[in-house]
Design goal:
It is built from no helices and 3 strands. The chain is mostly beta strands. A hairpin with a 5-residue loop joins strand 1 and strand 2. It is globular, with a radius of gyration of 16 Å.
């Protein structure tokens, strides 16, 4: 009997994370609190953009790569 193993493909999301409170900005979701539409890339956020949770400036965000887990 042949055993067939299927390797799950790892999926990742590139997001930006606030270094002060760890809030995530995901371009796919936008930021409703700051009236940022879904699909808006981080680079296109206004210079005065700040974290909706702690108020940190855009400069306090770092680019992160998160592994997505599916069940």
């Amino acid at each position: 009997k042949a055993s067939v193993t299927q390797k799950k493909e790892d999926k990742f999301a590139e997001v930006y994370q606030c270094t002060a409170c760890l809030t995530i900005y995901d371009a796919k979701l936008g930021d409703k609190e700051n009236n940022i539409k879904e699909g808006t890339p981080f680079e296109e956020l206004p210079e005065h953009y700040c974290c909706a949770v702690c108020g940190s400036s855009k400069e306090n965000y770092t680019k992160e790569r998160l592994q997505l887990v599916s069940e």
